[in-house]
Design brief:
Strand content: under 5%
Structural class: mainly alpha
Shape: globular
Radius of gyration: 12 Å
Low-confidence stretches: none
Order of helices and strands: HEHEHH
Strand order of the largest sheet: 1-2
Number of helices: 4
């Protein structure tokens, strides 16, 4: 099972779900979206928890952009910022 399958599963269950794109406005379509990796980097550079500037989602199924992998590089910030999250 890949990240797209997880995205579809949680979206079907009615959860606000992000996959790769993390627009601030959840009604925004891909063409006006920003990559999750970018907003995570902006959040951390601003001294905030990694997902602070990445919209209001219940589930983030892929947060890297294929070049930058915040789920690996910022693992400590994720664990500290979201101690009750499941990774």
């Amino acid at each position: 099972m890949g990240t797209t399958s997880l995205w579809k599963f949680f979206k079907c269950g009615g959860l606000a779900t992000s996959h790769y794109y993390c627009p601030q406005n959840t009604t925004c379509r891909k063409e006006c979206s920003e990559f999750c990796a970018d907003c995570i980097q902006l959040s951390v550079e601003s001294g905030l928890s990694p997902l602070s500037k990445c919209g209001k989602y219940d589930v983030y199924t892929q947060v890297d952009d294929g070049y930058y992998f915040p789920q690996i590089e910022l693992l400590e910030q994720f664990v500290n910022g979201y101690p009750n999250a499941t990774f």
